[in-house]
Design brief:
368 residues; alpha/beta; 7-stranded parallel β-sheet; two-stranded parallel sheet; 11 helices; globular; disordered C terminus
Length: 368
């Protein structure tokens, strides 16, 4: 290996054409699509700002022009095949071949299986998933011919886990977006085409004011923002720029060896148990110890099985029975500060801890 100077981080997009489907905004302020368009332009790309809202798309284009960037507005509905064909024909006529497709389209509706009718489900699927198929069909042949290209799809943590309220159609379709992108990545990797998904968490965008706020609070937007921030381990919602920077990385040659994966931008929420779930568990009684879980300061002890007069903590008693040292430091249902070795998902197995003999090892048979 030569001892030359390591290469600089290749984030430059000069000479590239980026097509952003959903480059407008649901309201005043910075949406993920709008912030991404501006970031791409700052990196030197020529940006196709596509949106069904002409005024919103024009506002994004104007922001890019004000900074000296190059962009053009294209108006149409990417869920409609005829519109998609027209949009990409116009974009190619203006800028040439598309080097990066950024799919930033998504709608949703609150409700579970019984609250979601077939028509609404099909409508959400058409916008969130079918549009990705239609756009991909327009750009992949050209990318194959040039031997390079990048596809970036915006999914959501709702497609990975339950986020506190029923959002069935949105969650299912965002999960489909992730799998769609993985399939494209595998099939087109030999052609030099990369496909990745960016998975935003709870992001503070204009959509909060228009739709999401109603799911959290009736008293105002500030309460909705505070409620969402409490769900995040970092204690705050993300910004559109947090997501846009992740997209810019995946569009650039800095991610030349990154494909078929998900870049999660969520402040740690997918790696933690919901704060709301934690509050729910604290209201329950711990079935293993029979104590009120709302008394986190109460002593949680168990009589010694060998006849000693003193009382010993539960975790020491279980270790004395030959159980392995557990990794977790906190029991799930009551959130007590004792070692129990049982995860939240194994709560029913807690009953075994009240028994003696071989049954005491049962919780570990299903530990995750």
């Amino acid at each position: 290996m030569s001892a030359g100077r390591p290469p600089a981080l290749p984030l430059d997009l000069s000479g590239r054409v980026v097509f952003v489907a959903g480059g407008g905004s649901a309201g005043p302020g910075w949406s993920i699509g709008r912030a991404s368009c501006v970031i791409y332009a700052r990196q030197g790309a020529r940006v196709c700002v596509a949106d069904r809202d002409a005024a919103s798309a024009e506002e994004t284009t104007a922001l890019i022009h004000a900074e000296g960037g190059e962009a053009a507005t294209f108006v149409g509905d990417v869920a409609q095949p005829a519109d998609v064909e027209r949009l990409f024909t116009e974009a190619r006529a203006r800028f040439g071949g598309i080097d990066v497709l950024h799919h930033n389209v998504g709608i949703g509706q609150t409700g579970g299986p019984m609250e979601t009718n077939a028509e609404d489900f099909d409508r959400i699927h058409a916008v969130n998933v079918r549009s990705l198929l239609l756009c991909s069909q327009q750009v992949l042949p050209g990318m194959v011919a040039r031997g390079r290209g990048a596809l970036i799809a915006i999914s959501s943590v709702a497609g990975m886990r339950y986020i506190g309220y029923p959002h069935l159609a949105y969650s299912v379709t965002k999960a489909a977006v992730t799998q769609f992108t993985r399939m494209v990545a595998q099939q087109y990797a030999p052609h030099g085409i990369r496909a990745n998904t960016v998975v935003p968490g709870l992001i503070d965008t204009p959509r909060i004011a228009t739709t999401v706020a109603k799911m959290f609070s009736d008293s105002g937007l500030d309460d909705a923002r505070a409620a969402r921030a409490r769900q995040v381990p970092m204690g705050r919602m993300g910004t559109a720029w947090d997501v846009a920077h992740a997209c810019a990385f995946l569009a650039s040659d800095a991610a030349a060896y990154v494909t078929g994966t998900e870049l999660v931008v969520d402040g740690g929420i997918t790696g933690s148990t919901s704060r709301a779930c934690s509050r729910y568990f604290r209201r329950l009684r711990c079935p293993a110890q029979g104590l009120d879980a709302r008394r986190p300061g109460a002593a949680r002890l168990k009589p010694c099985k060998r006849g000693q007069r003193r009382r010993r903590p539960l975790h020491r008693a279980t270790r004395r029975e030959g159980m392995p040292r557990p990794a977790t430091r906190r029991c799930a249902p009551c959130m007590c500060r004792r070692t129990c070795g049982v995860t939240r998902l194994d709560w029913p197995a807690w009953a075994c801890l009240r028994n003696s003999g071989n049954s005491v090892n049962r919780p570990y048979a299903n530990a995750r």
